[in-house]
From TrEMBL:
UniProt protein name: Sphingomyelinase phosphodiesterase
Domain (Calcineurin-like phosphoesterase): residue spans on this chain: 24-282
Cofactors (names): Zn(2+)
Keyword Glycoprotein: yes
Name of the encoding gene: LOC118412899
Highest classification ranks of the organism: Eukaryota, Metazoa, Chordata, Cephalochordata, Leptocardii
Listed GO MF terms: metal ion binding; phosphoric diester hydrolase activity; sphingomyelin phosphodiesterase activity
Alphabetically ordered keywords of this record: Disulfide bond, Glycoprotein, Hydrolase, Metal-binding, Secreted, Signal, Zinc
Amino acid sequence: MWRRCAWLAVVVALPVLALSDTGRFWFITDIHYDPSYLRPHQPGRVCDSLGPGMDPPANPGPWGDHDCDPPWRTINSSVYAMKAIDPNPDFILRGGDDVPHVDRASLNYTARTVVTLLSNITQLLEEVFPGVPVYSSLGNHDYWIKNQLPDTPNDVYNDVATLWLSGAGQDAMDTFRRGGYYSAPLRAGLRVIGLNTNLLYGRNLVTEGQDDPAGQFAWLEQQLEQARGNMEKVYIIGHVPPGTHERIYTKRDFRPNHNKRYIAIVRKYADVISGQMFAHEHFDTFRMIYDEQGAPISTVFLSPAITPWMRRNNPAFRQYLYERTTGELQDYLQYYANLTKANDLQLTDLDWQLEYQATVDYGIPDVTPVSMETLRNSLNEVPSGAFEKYYKHNSVGVDYGLCVEDCRAAQLCSTYRVDYDEYDVCWQARVGGVRGHRADGVLNVLALAVMGVVRHLV
Ligand SMILES: *[C@@H]1O[C@H](CO)[C@@H](O)[C@H](O)[C@H]1NC(C)=O
Ligand SMILES: *[C@@H]1O[C@H](CO)[C@@H](O)[C@H](O)[C@H]1NC(C)=O
Ligand SMILES: *[C@@H]1O[C@H](CO)[C@@H](O)[C@H](O)[C@H]1NC(C)=O
Ligand SMILES: *[C@@H]1O[C@H](CO)[C@@H](O)[C@H](O)[C@H]1NC(C)=O
Ligand SMILES: [Zn+2]
């Protein structure tokens, strides 16, 4: 009997294999270009993006420093490295935040400064990848003043619509000019929806108290409904992600009502949404979304940043492999450069390397929700090996020491429960206390603060 089943499996698998058509795309995010690196406006600071009150780095190297946002040569190097690895991606997606971490009024940043910095990155990608479609979402820094992205037309949305979406059609330009979001076809049967989740961000005072800023949720539902009708699949890209920060369990970016609504939409249209790629944290992680029965139906991927700022991570970008006919994500390859090494050895270029390949390193067949759920489950095992690998990747190799107890609970609940109430139940079960109100919870936050993670979190 088993023989016959095995034969059947082969017969069924063959045509699938024959039809499999793997495409590739790049995801690059949180570049935070700082033109002032090594020539700060205030002498001695090394860079304008140095966190307030931080000591300037003692030996800032030519490729940037873990206390600063990167100089142009680092950004240039990363984009050329992408080209050397794969010059012919189907498209390039970006998560936003091209603008450095500066908020001092003395720097005289304006909407114009923001648009100039965004145009610098856009031009670089056009030069290095001529003819390759590039789509980005706006980051919370891609506006002046940061975080305060409005739900009404303004100069930044207007100019960036022209910069990014001239080839994407009038509808995309129109919604972007209104609310900083859009939908555009990537290829036959596949579409990208670039969300402006900064409108849902708790730190955005402009949209506070609104159920549906700029009508984005209603529009998103209508777009997904339409895609379903047209038999299209959708990749959602956005900057600020749903869910709870996996290192700082007190940090939740979406307002609670918006988090709930977003999850409800993903559940309703999980058959249409083939990928969700987010950014903002600068860390490498993922967050599962389940249906009402608890089956994994979608994964929110968070990719690490180009900027190494606040010692969170090494500069990194990601390549996704996907099935062209279904949009299904098959794998991703995470690339990085060891910044310390480049500076220590005075390398003439950053030495970009494969950090890991998801299927190989995590031992999963692909990166579909079912496989990511397998990975998530393996993180729970003690000792697991999987968790230690995952945790090292989380900061792109920057050493944060051991992750146990609250640190581990925060990671596990973040990947498991995007809904805030469900997260709190997870936390209660693992830690046995109210989230963030336990004595060593406070210690954990202090420990993170010492490593410079909490301070000036954005
Ligand atoms: C960008 O990188 C390329 C490839 O390494 C190099 O030829 C070029 O000089 C670099 N440009 C800048 C401005 O650093
Ligand atoms: C900001 O503007 C003020 C007033 O025009 C000027 O004195 C100052 O030099 C400017 N600062 C920078 C960093 O350009
Ligand atoms: C960024 O754009 C501005 C305005 O076009 C230009 O003056 C500047 O040289 C650009 N910087 C880089 C690094 O391309
Ligand atoms: C980066 O290089 C330094 C040596 O310069 C080494 O100590 C460190 O382990 C490396 N980190 C990673 C993540 O490769
Ligand atoms: Zn960022």
